Amino acid sequence: METLNNILNFVFDGLLSLFAGLSPAFGLLAISIITGILMLLVFRYTSDQKGIKRAKNLVKAHFLAIRLYKDDISQMLSTMKNIIVSNLFYMSKSLKPMMFMLVPVALVLIQLDSRYEHRPFMIGESTIVSVHLTPNMAPSTLSSLSEVTLHAPEGIKIETPALRIPEKSEVAWRIRMEKEGIYDLIIQSGGQKFNKRLNVSNELTALAPNKERASFTAALFNPAEISLPSDSPFESIVITYPKRTLNMFGVSFHWLVGFFVLSLVAGFSLKGVFGVEI
Length: 278
What we know:
By secondary structure, the protein is an alpha+beta fold. The chain is built from seven helices and eleven strands. The protein is elongated, with a radius of gyration of 26 Å. Residues 138-143 have low confidence and may be disordered.
């Protein structure tokens, strides 16, 4: 999974670098259009195009029949039943290509989520770093938690002493950003050291707010950073990054809404160009 993440990170970083210096929304616009085109091509070559066209014509014919038999209640009811059947037929023709698109679109969403859901910190901002111990290794006393310590490099200031919460098996600190850069925070416990990446910049880059113990899902949903070792005493290390808000032409929107709207608009607008029946 990490090999695939590295390849996808390279592709997305390269593509988004073309829009460096512009609003992050322009990079999202480009990826949405590309995704819309790719979905069109997948749909074209994995679907029964003749069957879809036939199903659409049936639906149109039944709607026309409603207008023709608007004064015949029994005929209208029969036609409405035929519309439902025709729509189910049409949906069945769309199921196969949708299954083919599911995995690629999911990977695109994961990559976009790591870049657009949160933004890096700016100088002067503060945040919380929290460490959650694994359930089977959770300490029961405050003294046990004292083994967990945080070490920050120059440019990052630890503002508060560690807050240790035995009931939640959690240790937390408040830190402040004093200089731009990409940093590695070091969390130590019982002689073991684990790093957590921290980004302070004004760039569009992949972020990993949550670093979890190694598993397939942890690697899948967190492509920006390598997971913790499977034998780590920590369940996760969490940095609370600020949420990102996108703005284009004076309109603010969430990246997920923008992606689906833009990719669908691109797909439907270009279906005639690529000769695709949808």
